[in-house]
Write a structure and sequence with these properties.
The complex is a heterodimer of chains A (114) and B (110). Chain A is mainly β. Chain A has no helices and 11 strands. In chain A, strands 2, 4, 5, 6, 9, 10 and 11 form a 7-stranded mixed beta sheet that branches. In chain A, strands 1-3-8-7 form a 4-stranded antiparallel beta sheet, with no helix packed on it. Chain A starts with a strand and ends with a strand. Chain B is mostly beta strands and 110 residues long. In chain B, 0% of the residues lie in helices and 45% in strands. In chain B, the strands form 2 sheets. A 5-stranded mixed beta sheet of chain B has the order 1-9-8-3-4, with no helix packed on it. In chain B, strands 2-7-6-5 form a 4-stranded antiparallel beta sheet, with no helix packed on it. In chain B, strand 5 and strand 6 form a beta hairpin. Chain B is globular. Chains A and B meet through strand 4, strand 5, strand 9 and strand 10 of A and strand 3 and strand 4 of B.
């Protein structure tokens, strides 16, 4: 089945450590997104990418980095500069950026601090 | 980005219709109205979207006010599996982002 796969489901980070969250899609979508969700809150956009080798900052990009070397992959690195990384991270994809295109989401990665 | 306003929570009984309201008084002429829902510990799931006309699909119906300043998501017969947080979101024509509010927590009583 086509969809978005996020891994791992749970991740623990030590102080000062960078961690990378994986996101893979087989929907042949051009656009991909990373969101962060804190308990009881809506989603906030971290980064998005419209095409390979291109990405833009969202609303809360500080302390995060991304790459888009392949159409199907959009990994997110949570760096040590992100002082409050504990959250639920969601990856999404959509067909080319148009207002009517829905986004398809993965099942998320829950990141916690050790 | 234009904002939406939704009630924090709503309750329904199983097999009854549910009407989830959303106000978006600052909507622009090119904004699409999207609805997503999210179950605990899962990613959001697309439900439906529309621009000006009412829309129906297998999951729900979307009724859009004539002035487009409000809309209503209609679940025709609620089931226990419909218990989720429902988000009403405006998406511009360029579609670069979805701006999520806190949504409406729908509780379905058996």
């Amino acid at each position: 089945d086509g969809g978005i796969t996020q891994s791992p489901k749970y991740l623990f980070r030590k102080e000062g450590q960078n961690v990378t969250l994986s996101c893979e899609q087989n929907l042949n979508h051009d656009a991909m997104y990373w969101y962060r969700q804190d308990p009881g809150q809506g989603l906030r956009l971290i980064y998005y990418s419209q095409i390979v080798n291109d990405f833009q900052k969202g609303d809360i990009a500080e302390g995060y980095s991304v790459s888009r070397e392949k159409k199907e992959s959009f990994p997110l690195t949570v760096t040590s500069a992100q002082k409050n990384p504990t959250a639920f991270y969601l990856c999404a994809s959509s067909a080319p950026l148009r207002g009517h295109q829905p986004q398809h989401f993965g099942d998320g990665t829950r990141l916690s601090i050790l | 980005d234009a904002k939406t306003t939704q009630p924090n929570s709503m309750e329904s009984n199983e097999e009854e219709p549910v009407h989830l309201p959303c106000n978006h008084s600052t909507i622009s002429g090119t904004d699409y109205i999207h609805w997503y829902r999210q179950l605990p510990s899962q990613g959001p799931e697309y439900v439906i979207h529309g621009l000006t006309s009412n829309v129906n699909n297998r999951m729900a119906s979307l009724a859009i006010a004539e002035d487009r300043k409000s809309s209503t998501l209609i679940l025709h017969r609620a089931t226990l599996r419909d218990a989720a947080v429902y988000y009403c979101i405006l998406r511009g024509a360029s579609g670069s982002r979805l701006t999520f509010g806190e949504g409406t927590q729908l509780t379905v009583n058996p």
